[in-house]
């Protein structure tokens, strides 16, 4: 298992400078943003697809530093009811898949997206309650008319380009739990899998270890994010886990994102890594930093240190059993 980082963290640095910094920390992989919410500061697919020389230069910049690209990521909402917004995110996805094939990258990460509640809706609608029955009708319409048809087509497109799709299980989108991921995978095929981020499991009340077992036994984990969450035991009783306050309102929120080891202890993260190994995941653990209490450098360094400790101890455990 390799340790990597989601490079949007260093979007204010030039690619070469950011890669040097990542390599200096002993990491072996990078996940690179190619559009949508992550942006494309380090990698513009449209440019690289049109210029073979730039494509080779980009690939060399990564590989010459002993790094690999674990995934290209273009998290957006290709099912957005406003067609121009959906089209922009769809085009980012298509170009990212084409670029991934050229670079030999196995996985493209994104969101499932979330449609509106009818054909002429203006905003996404994320139903999360079974009653009143309106919500069940909205959910059925979304999956039957938007989610399954779109991702069935895109899964075939990605498969034709020898790429897997890692959908991040994220609140606000149609695929946000192990069950919804497996539902879509059953309908659209095994090209669809999870970009599993435990931080989004914790705030939904899901144990990441159990999520790993559920998805891993189905071979449905394509990529893995390392980000933590802390739940405030007082604020959660006021706002619930579906707290709608801005992330910046950290003092009063029910939960907030933290760097690895600052929401849950290293033993918990060791259990997560052990579960990944147990279900046969042997790819990349990609650090994502969204910790409002730490600077980029501090949060990244702490996450690297904690995860390196876990991975070393896991490796020593394997050697002991041998």
Summarize the structure.
Keywords: Isomerase. With 322 residues, the chain is of the alpha/beta class.
Please provide a written account of the structure.
InterPro entries: IolE/XylAMocC-like (IPR050312), Xyl_isomerase-like_sf (IPR036237), Xyl_isomerase-like_TIM-brl (IPR013022). This is Sugar phosphate isomerase/epimerase. The protein is α/β, with parallel strands linked by helices and 322 residues long. 45% of the residues lie in helices and 15% in strands. The protein is built from 11 helices and 10 strands. It has helices spanning 15-24, 45-50, 52-63, 83-103, 134-160, 178-188, 198-202, 208-216, 235-239, 266-278, 296-321; strands spanning 2-6, 29-33, 68-73, 107-110, 164-168, 192-196, 221-226, 228-231, 255-258, 284-287. Strands 1-2-3-4-5-6-7-10 form an 8-stranded parallel barrel, surrounded by 5 helices. A two-stranded antiparallel ribbon has the order 8-9. Helix 8 (208-216) packs parallel to helix 10 and helix 10 crosses helix 11. The protein is globular, with a radius of gyration of 19 Å. It starts with a strand and ends with a helix.
